[in-house]
Amino acid sequence: MKFIFRILAAFIATLLLAYGIAFYINNRGTAPVSDAKLKQSYERSVVWLVSHRESILREGNPILWWMLGESARINGDVRVQQLVAEYRRNFDRSDPYSVWQAFFNPQKFRNGRFSESEYISLVEYQQYFLYALTCSDQLAKEPLIAAQNDPEFCWSGARTIRPACVTHQLMGYRMAQRNQCAVDNLDASIATLQKTIEKQLRYDPRVVDVYLQRALMLVDSGARDRLAPRWLERILDAQRQDGSWSDMQPLVPISGGRYFGFGGRGVTITTPASNFHTTAQGILLTTLLLHPPK
After folding, report:
1. The whole model's pTM is what?
2. Burial readout 274-284 (b: 16 or more C-beta within 10 A, e: otherwise)
3. Worst-scoring range by mean pLDDT, 10-24, 111-125, 183-197, 232-246?
4. Residue 16 placed within a domain
């Protein structure tokens, strides 16, 4: 028993040491990232978008295209505007009656009514997105949607282990804020989630998709001052040579291009690959940082 205890104690000590090193690497002091570096990062990511035009146009996640559209609206980048326009033409042809057309035409869906089949199968945060895009009185009365007005929503049940629960909730709040939905104490709820996300960035050192998403949502929601220079530096350092971002953090090479590293839900062994989901968020993040609201 003593031997087993020693082995267990050594294992725990090793884990604590590894976390301590990772925590330090994540939070050590550093100089603010320059605009020149942000511009370089943005340009490289847009070059990746344009060079992978055909493959990314097959990516059907409307919120990512809305993010790219926001980036192009803010900075006027014609290259991104053209890509978004092409995606929207394709989306209009392939799925003109999708509820997610509300991302691009919110006024058309304002206070809309929906059949249960249009939203009941959506995951929790997607149901809230639909409400926040439309301010639908009908959807506001749905118990699962109403429950998400509580900033403590992510701290019950299985939601506590979903890394992106809080960022998705804040995305929904920002949609509700932009569209002026009647949500009680919305500004206070946004402030609560900003504090939570700041803690997540501090204590979860994995530079994976959700790390970048956390940084994006702090900046998008007006809490740029909460984004430590080191966290932004790590995001830019994680940008791949081709200008994209991966959804995993490679740590130790294994073989055949595979790495042991961090994924969205823990450790993984896989080949790092360019990821549209992460890259679209990186583009909007760098855009917002380069063009802060006046």
Report:
1. 0.94
2. bbbbbbbbbbb
3. 10-24
4. no
